[in-house]
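Late entry, written up from scratch paper. The run itself happened at the end of the previous shift, but nothing got recorded in the book at the time, so transcribing now.
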Amino acid sequence: MRCYNGVMSRSTPLRVVVDTNVVFEGLTYQGNAAGLIVEAWLANLFQPCVSNALAYEYADVLSRKLSPERWQKLQPVLGKLLSISQFTPIYYSWRPTSPDSGDDFLVDCGMNAGAAIVTSNLKDLKIAQTSLVLLVLTPAELVIKLATERSS
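Output as recorded:
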């Protein structure tokens, strides 16, 4: 399934930009929607899209928030996630579209990739969602969407 400005078509897998908060939660907690997203990512159930800025943020946040031992164990998993992701060059920027300037690169990646954004922080992406007609999902909404597509 492909998402472009909120319109879905079944020709290709759903393209998704996964926010760092979802990756962190998915790698550090078990049995939640974010963990299921990481599992679906590893199982190639959707097409993850990542820009350079997002890949660097994943590594930066994980290395700062995890103990050195835990980070060392999760580095190969992050490497695997990134290796099966589609690199998204940022040709155009839509800044500022979020009250939190740290979220603007998510919008840039989502718009340049023609992808939905999955985040736990819907509030800061509301402007982009309405003004750019960008599909923004919670982790639980993505899990439900992937489960429904697989059962159809």
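The chain has seven helices and seven strands.
(Scratch paper discarded after transcription.)
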